[in-house]
Amino acid sequence: MVDSGNAGCRKTLAAKRAPLFWGIIIIGLLWTGMAFGAGNYDYIDINNPLLKKVPIAVPFFKSASGNGAESETAQTGAIMLSDTLSFTGYFKILDRGSFLVDAQKSDIAAPVFKGWTSVGAELLVTGGISLNNSQIEMELRLFDTYNERQLIGRKYSGNVKDIRVMIRRFCNEIMGLLTGSTGLFDSRIAYISSGSAGKEVYICDFDGYNPTQITHNQSINLSPAVSHDGRWVAYTSYAKGKPDLFIQNISDNRVSVVDKKGMVISPAWVPGKFELAASLSFSGDPEIYLLTGTGKVINRLTDSPGIDVSPTFSPDGNKMAFVSRRGGTPQIYVQNMNSGQAERVTFQGNNNTQPEWSPKGDKIVYTALEKGGGFNICVVGVDGKGLMQLTHAQGDNESPSWSPDGSMIAFSSTREGTSRIYVMTAYGADQRRLMSTPGQQSEPKWSPGVTN
Amino acid sequence: MKRKYWVILAMLFIVPGLMLTASCAKKVTAKPEAAVSKTDDSSKKAAADTSKPGDSAALTAREKFMKQDVNFAFDSAVLDATAQAILKDKAAWLKDNASAATTIEGHCDERGTVAYNVALGERRAEAAKAFLVNLGVPAAKMTTISYGKEKPLDPAKTEAAYAKNRRAHFVLK
After folding, report:
1. Which CATH superfamily is A187-447 part of?
2. Do A373 and B114 touch (CB under 8 A)?
């Protein structure tokens, strides 16, 4: 399948991709592409600071019969897919007006690759739609145009109203192949939105669609945190008159309440367990405690006079980053859960808070107060090295949260005046607003979708 | 000297006793040592609750108790000289009003992260309470609550507004 005629132009790309094609490549409809294994590809290296967006072509899907509703679905489906990929900031979606190939006339299983490389596409997605009343059958394929091979092929069928779910699934496969992580497009973001009476907890899809209100107590609700299976949300609420912790099941609304004396704030779930950490002050001093998923205190994790708050766990659960004022100003510390030893990791600035440990395990994102005033999002390695500032001089930027695959960061920003939720790549590129609903939005917490 | 001692001792028992019965009955709230000054304002204030017109000084002190906030520096729960002076007044009022119970609210300015500010607000409320306990106010009369940065007094984004918002605020139960 290699076209030697283009070997010259392809050289740099092939050289980039050379490590990928060691083994036998099987091209087939049900081949998953995951056989490459994590770390074996460099299509998209999200840790690369000089990341170039991968040019991808997503022509309108082919309609089997050409009739009205089917053709329209073929177009909207392709747009939905390119929008979903575009959300990540890692792709350059090529303008359909520049395409030389007529998707309706081409073979979606065997594209003419030269027609695509000549408009600059390195990746190509083709689709075919067959619509019968509300039943849809959709074939989607991802191709590497320069190496002229199919990478992923899938067939979906179901009700046409679920087309977004099917498209998201396919995009998850694309992201899985290219970055080694899946689940981005099933993920959800919990957040706080203010209304006429207080602030309530909401959850929306990763792209801001389908906001759903979770709390309805017309009180002040803060700091939502969704469990790793996507089924529970913990949050601080003044519904009972003081800052208590509520742990709520998202589907049946069962609630456990932790209402110990003082405050119960900044919940964070422990990876892989039905347990969470939170800061409680019932002993007279705010310390971080470990709780069961139903709110019973298991044990105390920090032991230091002064404020200890905002825990976040490494993906293996062995370490916890948190904010402590034990050194005089709020700074971020990393504590080994086995030894109990804590080490400071932020040394610049007088106010570093809201740490979140990357799901990839290597970095901590947090909020830093600049000398001139103004809050900005920074990222540092878990050893305290490699500090990078991701937002600059645009309002107050706070409350960062990693996507479950570690490829993106959600945060709140007042750059437009009102506090809104924004997203950006893990390297700070492509900062854009997620959505805009009445009131002020804050405290986004990105979480996996519900696992079945 | 012994006689003076007796007088003071008597006052210590009689005055609180008067206050106790007075507050419980809620009919007379006059402070024995206060010079009552009747003004139109005070009678309007008196009309606002069920106390008798001769309470204007008591109301002023009570209003002052509720309106005068203790302020803090940024990211601090330290009580400076002004704060301590205000708290001394509050201690005096609380001791004079033995049946009064108060909630001390801790607040922060809007800068800084939500959870940390709830913790800081609590530190402020607790600092004020501890200071009052040291001045002899029974701890049982006071509860604390933090609202973090959620209930600013002044929504403006100026240093002056921020300074007002960094406060411990006293509410009578």
Report:
1. TolB, C-terminal domain (2.120.10.30)
2. no
